[in-house]
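Quick start: read one record
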Amino acid sequence: MSSSSAANQVRASHILIKHQGSRRKASWKDPEGRVINSTTRDSAVSQLKTIREDIVSGNAKFADVASRISDCSSAKRGGDLGPFGRGQMQKPFEEATYALKIGEISDIVETDSGAHIIMRTG
């Protein structure tokens, strides 16, 4: 049983940018939520589009950018969320991750947490 559930797991890293619409408007780098509260959804998405282009073009490394920019505590691990299975992440995040091949980076994915780009690593 456990081996089949492990076989269905994926592993991913992500970069999260929170904004006014995010469920929790605070993060490790913005504990008061000052930046988050003044960030619009469109601004978060456009920041991520630029970041994604830098990574895809080879001008930046995913883990480096995540550790500096991501509003998720996983930033300390270069954005690594570790392995997870179905039903453990918000649905749009889960679906995007499972749709990627290993090494691929998603387009912008939006959840209640904010806007993300996801790199499948396993």
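The chain has a mean pLDDT of 95.
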